[in-house]
Design a protein that fits this description.
With 242 residues, the chain is mainly alpha-helical. The chain has one domain. The protein has seven helices and two strands. The chain has a two-stranded antiparallel sheet with strand order 1-2. F-type ATPases have 2 components, CF(1) - the catalytic core - and CF(0) - the membrane proton channel. CF(1) has five subunits: alpha(3), beta(3), gamma(1), delta(1), epsilon(1). CF(0) has four main subunits: a, b, b' and c. This is ATP synthase subunit a, chloroplastic. It is found in: Membrane; Plastid, Chloroplast thylakoid membrane.
């Protein structure tokens, strides 16, 4: 049984709601998701604007945008230091900071900006992190980074970890390296996609005022997901450096 206000138009909306639709650009023979790239460039542009505003009039006593950017940098430094320790964290701050700020910006762009008001021939604008290709790319970057960290410190001796403490653990240790990027990518993708679908369905069923708490929860969850991803990336790098 459904409530009286659960009209046929609602069923039509739910039936037409699709996941994974895109409009494509053909670039040098490769099909790319156009709307994902547009929002990614938009997020990068905003991050560059904030960086410029925070550094154009740097002073010994932070003020306005400089204070905001220095607070963000202190937060990122804490993530790197807590996971990597005093000996290694400095060289990994740019990578960890880029991961955190990019994911944070993408998640907030999807939760705050009303992209659905812009109609496209196929698909719709949304957070780039609700596309599995984006999250897999971020996870693979993380995997390459911790392999690089281990090889740069230990050389080929890094691969001894696969047979320690006993050679019987070789298959399990190899499987672990495959599951790390899978868990990183699907955790971020699933949480962001689920939040956007929940807000979309609730907005179609009830007035705008009621989904607002869900939208605020989505903003909070997006921030937490950025923190989790960057923290796990730093932890994996620290594990490779041990």
């Amino acid at each position: 049984m459904y409530p009286d206000n659960f009209s046929s138009s609602t069923f039509t909306f739910l039936a037409e709601a699709e996941v994974g639709k895109h409009f494509y650009w053909n670039i040098a023979g490769f099909l790319v998701h156009g709307q994902v790239l547009v929002v990614i460039w938009f997020v990068i542009f905003l991050l560059l604007i904030f960086s410029f505003l925070g550094t154009r009039e740097a002073d010994r006593i932070p003020h306005s945008w400089q204070n905001f950017m220095e607070s963000a940098l202190d937060f990122i430094v804490d993530i790197a230091r807590n996971q990597l320790g005093e000996s290694f964290y400095r060289e990994w701050i740019p990578f960890i900071g880029t991961l955190f700020l990019f994911i944070f910006g993408c998640n907030w762009a999807g939760a705050v900006i009303p992209w659905k008001l812009i109609e496209l021939p196929e698909g719709e604008f949304a957070a780039p992190t609700n596309d599995i290709n984006t999250t897999v790319a971020l996870a693979l970057l993380t995997s390459f980074s911790y392999f690089y960290a281990g090889l740069s410190k230990k050389g080929l001796g890094y691969f001894k970890r696969y047979v320690n403490p006993i050679p019987l653990l070789l298959p399990i240790n190899i499987l672990e390296d495959f599951t790390k990027p899978l868990s990183l990518s699907f955790r971020l993708f699933g949480n962001v996609l689920a939040d956007e679908l929940t807000v979309t369905v609730l907005t179609s069923l009830v007035p705008l005022v009621i989904p607002l708490p869900i939208m605020l929860l989505g903003i909070f969850a997006g921030s937490v997901q950025a923190l989790i991803f960057s923290t796990l990336a730093a932890a994996y790098i620290a594990e490779a450096l041990e």
